[in-house]
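Team,

Forwarding the record for the chain on the shared tracking sheet. I've put the sequence and predicted structure together so nobody has to dig through attachments.
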Amino acid sequence: MSLKFGTSGLRGLSTDLNGTPAAIYATAFARYLISSGQAKPGDPILLGRDFRASSPAISAICAGALRRAGLIVLDCGTVPTPALALYGLEIGAAALMITGSHIPADRNGIKFYRPDGEISKIDEEAIGKEARALTEQSAPIDASPGPAADHSRQAEALFLARNASLLPADALSGLKVGVYQHSTVARDLFVEVLTGYGADVIPLGRSADFIPVDTEAVSPATVDLLKAWAAEHWLDAIVSADGDGDRPLVSDETGLPLRGDLLGLIAAQFTGATVAVTPVTSNSGLERQPGLSILRTRVGSPFVIEGMLEAVRGGETGVVGFEANGGTLTATDFTINETMLRALPTRDSFLPVLAVLSLAAHRQRPLSTLAVDFALPVALSDRIENFPLETSAALMSHLRSGMDTLATFLASIGKPASVSDIDGLRVTLTDRSVVHFRPSGNAPEMRCYAEAETADQAKRVLEQGLACIRAFGQQHRTA
């Protein structure tokens, strides 16, 4: 099976997941839960899914496999991943989310949750071991679909209640906010939550077909849409999320998307957190923000969660996490607007969206101005799609072979001054700009991140970084 665990869950082509492989991984997860004492036969387990064309069939196959493994399947329907995770925490149930998140429509995946939250890398290894054993057994795997009780209303209601009490009544009154609905499972909930706080909400771009939206590398076509809508409707902001609703997208009044790590920073300040855990790909200017200790990790929610847990074990009482895509996690409970916000250690798009919009409403200033106030270096990122995994591996091996090799590779961009190898290769140049090369953990893509003091300089570094990647890929194919 050409499926693998990436930065968040199992991913692959939908044709490789649909059918027997889906049954194998669902069965493997059930067996792991039961053998490790995290569940017992007859316990409930939740299922959710995104709007991809392949998701209903994969979900039904997983339901049948989980039922045959002895668990009671509760179908939560097309709900955001954080809503599914919250409901699982509420009733003490494990969960599976059928989603490929932001990756292309011909791909899909499964995110796994224990009864106490998102699985770890150790859990991934154990599930993979069970899956391999099932694949190698002589008996055929039953991949027939199975029934599941409808719990979509319960999961949705709990998530709405969580987000309906974070701000004072009419806190967003006076803001005109577009909701880019495309095909995200968060599209209707965003409209309901924001309208409930008094915002004038304009639904935009609803699609019956699945549209992959990467909030960490927003496509030029999407930016053009956002800019056109912002001008047409005189909007203060446009909000959206990726396919499964755990990564936020917020654009300012001009339609220009705000960086995800800035959204995470604002969410951290909104909660009153004292510690924020974030990957090495997030903006280097975070360390200069007052009152917030920054802990760095590798890319991927399992690493951020482990970093948060380490901070809690160390005695910290106000701990959040966020990724460069804006998804925000909470490791501890917080009191906001005299309401207890329960810890939710999985990515959430709603918390950062509400934090940013409430800040704009409170200060009565445009989002573009608020973003400048944080004085973060300009950070850009993009990716090269359909970049073979073996080529990515060859590129990273080449860059790590020595400083002379690295300097030659970067000659068109600048001279390397220091290197971080936490995840991919992050190079600080002598002019203090940054270029970071990293293979995607979810798809055959090569990502490039750039930082600089000015937008023009950051754009130049990013464009030249991408050009260097493409040139290596072409040489590798012809070698």
